[in-house]
Amino acid sequence: MTNKIMIIDDNETNVKLMNLVLTKAGFKTDTIINPKFAFDIIKETKPVLILLDINMPEVNGFKLCKMLKKDNETKDIPIIFVSAFKDVKYIAGGLAIGGADYITKPIKPEEVIARVSVQMKLALAQKKLIKTNEILQKEITEDRLNTSDMQEDFLYSLMQIKNNKSTEKDLESIKSFMEFVVEKIVKSSQYSEDLTVDFAMDAISEAIKE
Question: What does the alpha-carbon distance between residue 11 and residue 106 come to, in Å, rounded to a whole number?
Fold first, then answer.
């Protein structure tokens, strides 16, 4: 997904005006004049926000919005409708099918910038949240894999100690697992000041002796 705003309107004059307003305000933009190709272009470029005219030939704004909201790759891209239709039924209809906001023509630069700024902040925050969540999920998966391997080594080493067959490697294996437990679990609990790796190792040694 890029950080660009996609302006979609079959009227070239409207596109140029909107593009001028947004670029002067510091936003990066792309434009589409032929709505027939808009869906494929959006899927490929994945803009962070879409400004979408309603009254267009072949594929009107409402139809394109529904197509985008049904597609997993584009459903989360916010859409602001931009239209000369001021009737409340059009505004309500646009919001009902997934539009994030609605701007009426003729556009007022201050209003456009204000509404776009809000949606951009929300979209970028969501983008960051999704990225953070992906990183966390990856870390959790890696932790689970690491934990599984460490648990096997830990249990094997305990049995070696129990059977008086332990080596230095077994002790290191147990210590590594306890360090992992203390770091990932104990430190976030109310007992974090009392439980240490050394304490855990001593407790295990005593338990094995019994």
Answer: 13
Three-state secondary structure along the chain? CCCCEEEECCCHHHHHHHHHHHHHCCCCEEEECCHHHHHHHHHHHCCCEEEEECCCCCCCHHHHHHHHHHCCCCCCCCEEEEECCCCHHHHHHHHHCCCCEEEECCCCHHHHHHHHHHHHHHHHHHHHHHHHHHHHHHHHHHHHHHHHHHHHHHHHHHHHHHCCCCCHHHHHHHHHHHHHHHHHCHHHCCCCCCCCHHHHHHHHHHHHHC
d(CA 169, CA 176): 10
Q: Are strands 79-83 and 49-53 parallel, antiparallel or unpaired?
A: parallel
d(CA 80, CA 101): 5
For residue 30, what are the CA distances in angstroms to 87, 103, 124, 186? Answer: 28, 18, 17, 51
* Pair 126, 49: CB distance under 8 Å: no
Cβ neighbours of 158 (radius 10 Å): 18
Tokens of 163: 């059977």
pLDDT tens for 117-159 read 999 998 888 777 777 777 767 766 666 556 666 667 767 766 7
pTM > 0.90: no
